[in-house]
């Protein structure tokens, strides 16, 4: 287990949304000595299976599962 790694796990079926997540994740300030690992899971049989696969594929001590839904409330036009 890597004590100084944070994994960000994203199940995705849309490359544009995944790229947007990566854009912001890569700009996060991490504690000194820490590294980030961005794991994109595509074509998972289910979200649960996808996130479990991402968790098992990383040696990071800290794992963050992100759910990106679209459209998000901020993207919806107000009536």
Structural class: alpha/beta
Residues in helix, %: 25-40%
Q: Average pLDDT value?
A: 88
Q: Tell me the major beta sheet.
A: 3 strands, parallel
Rounded to an integer in angstroms, the radius of gyration calculated over CA atoms is: 14 Å
Tally the helices: what do you get? Answer: 2
Question: Which strand order spans the largest sheet, edge to edge or round the barrel?
Answer: 2-1-3
Estimated share of beta-strand residues: 25-35%
Low-confidence stretches: none
What gap, in angstroms, lies between the N and C termini?
49 Å
**Shape, please?**
flat
> SSE string, helix = H, strand = E?
EHEHE
Q: How many E-type strands? A: 3
General description of the model:
The chain is α/β, with parallel strands linked by helices and 79 residues long. 27% of the residues lie in helices and 33% in strands. The chain contains two helices and three strands; from the N terminus they run βαβαβ. The protein has helices spanning 15-25, 47-56, and strands spanning 2-12, 35-42, 60-66. A three-stranded parallel sheet has the order 2-1-3. It is flat, with a radius of gyration of 14 Å. The mean pLDDT is 88.
Describe this protein with a few key phrases.
79 residues, alpha/beta, 3-stranded parallel β-sheet, 3 strands, 27% helix
Q: Care to give the gist of this entry?
A:
The protein is an alpha/beta fold and 79 residues long. The protein has helices at 15-25, 47-56; strands at residues 2-12, 35-42, 60-66.
């Amino acid at each position: 287990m890597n004590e100084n790694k944070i994994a960000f796990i994203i199940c995705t079926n849309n490359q544009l949304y995944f790229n947007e997540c990566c854009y912001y994740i890569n700009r996060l300030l991490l504690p000194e000595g820490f590294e980030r690992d961005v794991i994109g899971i595509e074509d998972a049989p289910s979200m649960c299976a996808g996130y479990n696969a991402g968790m098992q594929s990383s040696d990071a001590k800290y794992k963050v599962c992100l759910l990106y839904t679209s459209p998000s409330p901020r993207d919806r036009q107000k009536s």
